[in-house]
């Protein structure tokens, strides 16, 4: 029996309802996988692309009456050992950078939130090679 791995391609800006739907879906999926036993469920992959790169900006301020989507993703990543890959090109073009890329491109500091990693599109391609079901938010 072949297992299908959900692959969530998150492209929505953090203020968009789809970005929050992706977070809720991921939380529910991971809670279900834990409840039912990990051996019964396929792993879950996420990939942040386009405007979703803003989610990985540790300097994004959020008012107290709104969900801080960055902190929520960080919490899920920590609790479930979930990698949070972000497309490096779309992140850099939106002002989100890690230390290595800031040095390489002579940028004035880094602002990548803890738990997120900047990766190339080859990471997404490798995720798509596996038996995965792609869902875009």
UniProtKB/TrEMBL annotation:
InterPro entries: DsrEFH-like, Sulphur_relay_DsrE/F-like, Sulphur_relay_TusD/DsrE. Its main location: cytoplasm. Signal peptide: none annotated. GO terms for biological process: tRNA wobble position uridine thiolation. It is found in: Cytoplasm. Pfam families: DsrE. One of its GO terms (molecular function) is sulfurtransferase activity. The keyword Glycoprotein does not apply. One of its GO terms (cellular component) is sulfurtransferase complex. Keywords: Cytoplasm, Transferase. Belongs to the DsrE/TusD family. This is tRNA 5-methylaminomethyl-2-thiouridine synthase TusD.
